[in-house]
Amino acid sequence: MMKNISSTWYFWVFPLFAVLISGYLLYDYFEQRGPEVKIRFEEGSRITPGKTEVRFRGVRVGIVNDIRITDDKKAVEVFARLEKHAAEFANEGTKYWLETPRVSFEEIRGLDTLVEGSYISAVPGDGPKAENFQGRIGTDLKNPLEETALFKLETQRLDSVSDGDTLFYRGMDVGTVTKVSLSKTGQTINVQIRVPWEYARLVRTNTVFWRKAGFQAKLGLFNSFVKMNSVDALLRGGIEFATPTNAGAKAKAGTTFILLGEAPKETEKWNPVLD
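Given the sequence above, the corresponding structure tokens read:
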């Protein structure tokens, strides 16, 4: 009798162990899951449940788990499950757009979708929790990560600056000249610049702007130098800016600055912390 009981006990150990493991994995699965959001798109031909990811700056923050046609047959509803660490993407104000290849004179973007397949890019909002969102197709929407701030520069004389020229900070491309026009009084020239939001913090109330020369030369007996900047600056010119070490407050969009003809001598010593 004891032998039968002992055999029965061993018989139930393995199923019980399997149930415990399965229960733990199931608990862990639900514990790691974030909220589900519903995104409305005009069409869903490039969206595949279980495959199309939701990404932020190239990092996965969720995945599409279902797609349905709306009751009015005018759009599709995409159901995406977010990662637990990405709960803020279920806040009101979050922007979703389907990333697709874009090729134009100014940019080539989204070509990774040709290899990996389309994905949904997102930028988190800061409002209250929400479940329903309106998505857009990437070719119809400017990437929200590329939203910009516009500033205006004034100068009495404009040399080697025109629409499309590059805005430089420490030699890095951080913006574009979007418009050059004569002021209403005809006394100055207005230059409008566009700075992506991620670089807008670099523009402070005491920031200095100047025209960037592609080729600079100074010849003297004991103090001579020849400097050639980037090919882009050499061919198209541009504008450069810097901020004093004691940086002012962040400049508001629309602020007007004076455009100098050359960089102030002290700019090479400026090294502000701009956060």
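Confidence is low (pLDDT under 50) at residues 103-108, 111-115, 224-235. Try to locate this feature in the token string yourself.
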